[in-house]
Amino acid sequence: MWYEQPFRNSGNLTILLRAIRKIATFPIHIMEVCGGQTYALSRYRIEDLLPETIQMIHGPGCPVCVTAEETVARAIEIARFPGTIFCTFGDMMRVPSAEGWSLQRLKAEGKDIRMLYSPLDALEIARENPGKEVVFLAIGFETTTPIYTLLLQEIIDRAISNLSLLTSLFTIPAAVSFLARDPECQIECLLAAGHVCSITGIKVYERLSHELNMPIAITGFEPADLLYGIYRVIQLKAQGKNTAVNAYRRAVPERGNEIAQAATNRFFMPYDAHWRGLGTIPAGGLKLRPEYEQYDARNRFPCNVKPDIRPSMCHAGEIMKGKISPRECPLFGSRCTPDTPLGASMVSSEGACAAFYRYNTN
Amino acid sequence: MEFPNCPIPTQKHDRITMAHGGGGRMTARLIENIFYPAFANRWLEQAHDGAMLSLPSSRIAFTTDSFVVNPLFFPGGNIGDLAINGTVNDLLCCGATPLHLSAGFILEEGFPIDALEKIVRAMQTAAIQAGISIVTGDTKVVEHGKCDGLFINTAGIGVIPPNIDIGLHRVAKGDAVIVTGSIGNHGVAILSSRESLGFESSIRSDTAALTSIVANLLAELPEVHILRDPTRGGLSSTLNEIAEGAKATIVIDEEALPIDPPVKAACDLLGLDPLYVANEGLMLIFLPDKYAKQALRIIQSDTHGKNARIIGRVTNNKKPEVILKLALGQTRIIDMLSGEQLPRIC
């Protein structure tokens, strides 16, 4: 039997929904932090099944969506350097720069831009092309960062001199804390991103729930996981308990993945990072430590990119704060569609706008 | 048949050179050694610039297709059988009995001749299974780096029986929607065979010509309204094309969709929706509901139709949209694929 079946089974979902309906007697705003959760909520139309008292807010947990305009502009400049092979995950190909360029458009113009599934594939590309500079656009959260540490370790061990990383790495707790403290923000409870917690462990979320006076459930990505997480936060809210619970025990050990944590700390350090649509978040990102700066593509390619590019039209920031829903954006579905994205959250399948467009439009 | 002026036989490690496309002796040798022995039939043996054919009817279906799949060899097939099966299925979608195909090859300088032989043999095996003949062809060679190994273009013709009328105009309220097998296998097989992905699976492409399914179905149930093969863009894109073209609302029951567990798991892992993943040996069939069960029996009795299911209905003939009904009764619209999901899938 297929392993996820129990988590999509209609009988199990009905039981969970019944339990939620029983306790959801008061209005409540719940933010699902991770884009994977946003995608699943839309894909399975879970919000249609929830009582009207529950309002879901789609959080910032999609690394494609929050990668700064400055990074996108820099990626495009670097990819234009002669003799460069620019490597990226697929979703970043279509993210438009403020000037309307994208890596996909550059590729069509003949630049060597390659879509990889694993960052480690860049090693082989670097080996096969000794005369060229290979760059990997390293985006991600705590879940993806450890893979880049493997890549860095290989670069060092094999003394590879023509491979560098353009990093755009973010840490979730800082962003959640930033959003929750925004006076306009509606969030009352959080569904923390289960996969991020499988790396970080749950302690940081226990701390966060006390700091923010907010119940948090560490939640998975299947329909039953999401319903169970929703049930647990409502239960905590009703009981007045501002604490974090692990509602994704099959994947999240209490202490997380300590090997991955150590590797991340070895290569990277926190810094105040710009999140697209949200602004600069104190300690909201990770950058290479000074001793590894030589592997930072920012140091290898002199670029003339303004640090403060702002999107002129996209409202994704307000969507991530729960101030408006994607449907309320004046561009949604008319000028901004998955075929003609104006913002990153319309590009990535985990972006709130793309998920909404694909599964919620009528 | 040996080419008399060239005493040196093809070597295993021989490669395509520009001379193979020059139209001279090397071209002739390539045709004599590789294509003629594999495709042997009386039309090809006319050795003319084109095939001269007599067809049993003037009601003809005519189609063309090009194949650029990467990699050329993948679990369950290669570009050769893919090309034949794809073209045959396009003819079947017209309700035609496929008869003859052309095959044009664009070869990259340096392409291994033994790989070409393998592909050509696979084409012939597929042609025999599909009951068609490859009656004319062409080869061109481009410089190294100007194409990726080998591209194939085909054209096909078939004849449409007088009692068959298949097309968007026939789609009607109350039609049942049948899919002839599990979805998403081809796309996932291609993905898993690309080196960069780093996962191994038992998933094989479903590439197959569905000649016998369609022939048996139309023989017993000429009332079939539409046949479509949901290749690139997957099931949802083809359903949307039908909805749009026929101005029909199609409701699909998610729980009825046949998806093999490994495909489901791979799609989950890669963030793909199986509804958008390509198929190569699959047919969507719309026909009046009263014939649906009989159709299903006919399809399921065929090797390629064992997993066939009734997956939905046409609910009205006005609003062109495809609605997916989920497990707990929720519904959502399924749209066409945006952009590309997987490049060079066929």
Strand content of chain B: 15-25%
User: So how many helices of chain B?
Assistant: 8
Shape, per Cα inertia axes of chain A = globular
Q: In what order do the strands lie side by side in the largest sheet of chain B?
A: 8-10-7-11-9-12-13
CATH-defined architecture of the largest domain in chain B: Alpha-Beta Complex
Q: Average pLDDT of chain A, to the nearest integer?
A: 91
Radius of gyration of chain A: 21 Å
Low-confidence stretches of chain A: none
How would a crystallographer describe the biggest sheet of chain A?
6 strands, mixed
The total number of structural domains of chain B is 2
CATH class of chain A: Alpha Beta
**The number of domains of chain A:** 1
Helix/strand order of chain A, N-terminal first = HEHEHHEHEHEHEHEHHEHEHEEHHH
Greatest contact between two chains: A-B, 32 and 20 residues
List keywords for this structure.
heterodimer; A: about 350 residues; alpha/beta; Rossmann fold; five-stranded parallel sheet; about 40% helix; B: about 350 residues; alpha+beta; 60s Ribosomal Protein L30, Chain: A; Phosphoribosyl-aminoimidazole Synthetase, Chain A, domain 2; seven-stranded mixed sheet; four-stranded mixed sheet; 8 helices; 13 strands; about 25% strand; disordered N terminus
Overview of the structural elements:
The complex is a heterodimer of chains A (362) and B (346). With 362 residues, chain A is of the alpha/beta class. Chain A has a single domain (1-362), classed as HypD, alpha/beta domain 2 (Rossmann fold). Chain A contains 15 helices and 11 strands. Chain A has a 6-stranded mixed β-sheet with strand order 4-3-5-6-11-10, sandwiched between helices. In chain A, strands 2-1-7-8-9 form a 5-stranded parallel β-sheet. Chain A is globular and about 65 Å long. The two termini of chain A are 35 Å apart. Chain B is α+β, with helices and mostly antiparallel strands and 346 residues long. Chain B folds into 2 domains: 18-159, PurM-like, N-terminal domain (60s Ribosomal Protein L30, Chain: A, 2-Layer Sandwich), CATH 3.30.1330; 168-333, Phosphoribosyl-aminoimidazole Synthetase, Chain A, domain 2 (Alpha-Beta Complex). In chain B, the strands form 3 sheets. Chain B has a 7-stranded mixed β-sheet with strand order 8-10-7-11-9-12-13, sandwiched between helices. A 4-stranded mixed β-sheet of chain B has the order 1-6-4-5, with helices on one face. In chain B, strands 2-3 form a two-stranded antiparallel sheet. The radius of gyration of chain B is 21 Å and the shape is globular. In chain B, 47% of the residues are buried. Residues 1-7 of chain B have low confidence and may be disordered. The chains are: A alpha/beta (362), B alpha+beta (346). Chains A and B meet through α1 and α15 of A and α7 and β13 of B.
